[in-house]
Amino acid sequence: MKKAVTEDEIVKLIKNGASEVHLTKDDILTPLAIDRIRSAGLQIIRGGNSAQTFSSQSKKIVIGSDHTGVKAKKILVEWLKSKSCEVLDIGTYNEDSVDYPDIAFNAASRVANKEFDYGILIDATGIPSAITANKIPGIRAATCYNEFSAKSSREHNNANVLVLGAKSLGEETIKSVTDVWLNSNFLGDRHQRRLDKITAIEQKYSKNEM
After folding, report:
1. Residue 39 sits in which domain range?
2. Of 23, 31, 76, 129, which is most buried with the most CB atoms under 10 A?
3. Running along the chain, 210 residues long, what does each successive block of 10 average in pLDDT?
4. pLDDT score at 19
């Protein structure tokens, strides 16, 4: 029987002075558990990686980050391509300081213009890029920090831009959140009625200068 090993269990091992994590062949590590193991430098004995259930349907994704998210973006781009996604990396490409509004506008405007199915933005916290992207009519950018927020942002809000915090989330959590986000679908019904109200507010204040 498969068992999910959580972050709390890893924390207990660390407090007890463990240097290794012993697992059966069927045990599954949660993304947060994997990130905790890596940050603590623990060795996994007979361990496995977290499973990803990515859809086989190809998706066109534009991705960008500021200087704080370059490393996370590189990892995520490689992971997305391994899942047969068509990915355009619009920068930045090194850790020299840049202004996040430039990157966020570049990526989000491509989604608004329907050049890409989805956008992904990465900065330190995931907050400022979302604020910027949401200034563009038609963009619904969601800062997601776990699988629940990722799923909800797609099912209830029909988010078309995912925003992640490179200094808030670990590598495996970023992958897991992205996986859930891309594989969740808008539920419509009462949620569409609410989105229509958001769109009405947007149109009231938009000058359509794009």
Report:
1. 4-45
2. 129
3. 80 82 82 91 66 58 98 97 94 97 98 97 98 97 96 96 97 95 91 94 74
4. 83
Q: Are 153 and 147 in contact (CB under 8 A)?
A: no
Angle between helices 147-155 and 171-182 (to 10 degrees): 20
SS3 32: helix
Q: What is the pTM of this model?
A: 0.77
The predicted pLDDT at position 55 comes to: 52
Q: Distance (Å, rounded) from C-alpha 97 to C-alpha 184?
A: 34
Which domain CATH number covers 68?
3.40.1400.10
Q: Which of the following is catalytic: 22, 67, 156, 191? A: 156
Side-chain-facing half-sphere of 183: CA atoms under 13 Å: 15
Let me know if 22 is a catalytic residue.
Answer: no
- DSSP letter string over 61-82? EEEEE-GGGHHHHHHHHHHHHH
Domain co-membership, 35 together with 64:
no
